[in-house]
């Protein structure tokens, strides 16, 4: 969840774990960095203030790109804000003559700008249209809940929301849409709450019963896990030897994807079938050289002061690695 805690603030928002991100990225004069999830520009601004460097910022949300114009004017010649997905960062920069960078930072998930705007449909805290699209393209969450089969809805809610009552929720959604299409966040949240509470039978919930279903739909609508995989691979292609990759994740599925990628790329876990060691000229398997080296083992968590100020930061996990000089063919 981007732009939600700490200082300095940008339009009322600031990025989670800002100090830890900048310390790990270690910006240096004359270098080039990618902020793949621009949001409100908090990371980009902090990088530019830390060193006399250049930042290429990317966001799929048109509203974020518009917000970035003022910051780009302030750091004229040093900050460029591009419309697009971070999974395409290498192609976006190649089109502008940039073939390698010294660092990439990714802050995964939904931004507070998106979450706090009821008109975007990401949250049930205020009623609004059931949209959830980060970039405005493709099917909305309303399209998903009103057209997919009960089985497909259950799979999405269970797989991306880790919701144990997924099948009951999917059944309730399908029953409700027969009466009238589900068009608002409030309507969907009420359907989910009733379905969960019937199954929970008085069990105390620590979060709103609709939380996991909304998370699942958002991840599905925006193909967030697919984008994470594409983004990590794009960063691997774009980073020069010694370049740093810093990723902040906010829930277990995101963090698991990042951890798995780095475990494989750092050579600390057996490679899945599509990443099997390549064959030598004699046809014998040879181990691929690691393309990354972990900066520290495990994940870094936010400090107590930050989580006390902003409860949204509690689930944040930072992982980071340095690009080795191993050629990409070794990891293919």
Can you walk me through this structure?
This protein is an alpha/beta fold. 41% of the residues lie in helices and 13% in strands. The chain contains 13 helices and seven strands. Strand 2 (54-59), helix 3 and strand 3 form a beta-alpha-beta unit. Helix 7 (150-161) crosses helix 10 (211-222). The chain is globular and about 60 Å long.
Low-confidence sequence ranges = 1-12, 270-285
Shape assignment: globular
Strands of the largest sheet, in order across it? 3-2-1-4-5-7-6
Fraction of helical residues: 40-55%
Give the topology string: H per helix, E per strand: HEHEHEHEHHHHHHHEHEHE
Largest β-sheet summary: 7 strands, mixed
Number of helices: 13
Which structural class fits the helix and strand makeup?
Answer: alpha/beta
Report mean pLDDT, rounded to a whole number.
87
How far apart, in Å, are the first and last alpha carbons? 31 Å
Strand content: 5-15%
Describe the structure using short key phrases.
single chain; alpha/beta; 7 strands; globular; disordered N terminus
In short:
This protein is α/β, with parallel strands linked by helices. It is built from 13 helices and 7 strands.
Summarize the topology.
Blueprint: H1 18-25, E1 32-35, H2 42-50, E2 54-59, H3 62-74, E3 79-83, H4 89-94, E4 101-107, H5 112-115, H6 141-147, H7 150-161, H8 166-179, H9 185-200, H10 211-222, H11 224-238, E5 239-249, H12 252-265, E6 292-294, H13 304-309, E7 317-323
Parallel strand pairs: 1-2, 1-4, 2-3, 4-5
Antiparallel strand pairs: 5-7, 6-7
Helix pairs in contact: 7-8, 7-10, 8-9, 11-12
């Amino acid at each position: 969840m981007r732009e939600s805690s700490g200082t300095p603030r940008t339009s009322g928002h600031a990025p989670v774990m800002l100090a830890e991100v900048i310390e790990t990225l270690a910006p240096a004069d004359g270098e080039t960095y990618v902020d793949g999830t621009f949001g409100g520009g908090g990371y980009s601004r902090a990088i530019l203030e830390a060193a006399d460097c250049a930042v290429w910022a990317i966001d799929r949300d048109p509203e974020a790109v518009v917000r970035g114009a003022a910051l780009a004017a302030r750091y004229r010649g040093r900050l460029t804000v591009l419309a697009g997905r971070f999974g395409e960062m290498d192609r976006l920069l190649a089109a502008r003559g940039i073939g390698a960078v010294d660092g990439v930072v990714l802050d995964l998930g939904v931004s507070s700008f998106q979450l706090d705007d009821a008109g975007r449909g990401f949250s049930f805290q205020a009623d609004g249209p059931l949209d959830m699209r980060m970039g405005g393209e493709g099917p909305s969450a309303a399209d998903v809940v009103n057209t997919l089969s009960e089985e497909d809805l259950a799979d999405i809610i269970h797989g991306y929301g880790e919701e144990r009552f997924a099948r009951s929720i999917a059944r309730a959604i399908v029953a409700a849409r027969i009466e009238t299409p589900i068009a608002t966040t409030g309507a969907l949240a009420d359907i989910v709450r009733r379905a969960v509470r019937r199954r929970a039978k008085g069990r105390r919930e620590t979060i709103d019963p609709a939380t996991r279903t909304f998370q699942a739909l958002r991840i599905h609508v925006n193909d967030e896990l697919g984008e994470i995989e594409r983004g990590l691979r794009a960063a691997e292609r774009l980073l020069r030897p010694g370049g740093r990759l810093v990723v902040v994740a906010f829930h277990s599925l995101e963090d698991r994807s990042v951890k798995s990628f780095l475990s494989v790329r750092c050579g600390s876990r057996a490679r899945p079938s599509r990443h099997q060691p390549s064959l030598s000229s004699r046809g014998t398997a040879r181990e691929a050289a690691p393309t990354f080296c972990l900066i520290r083992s495990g994940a870094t968590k936010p400090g107590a002061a930050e989580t006390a100020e902003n409860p949204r930061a509690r689930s944040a996990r930072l992982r980071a690695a340095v690009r080795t000089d191993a050629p990409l063919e070794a990891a293919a």
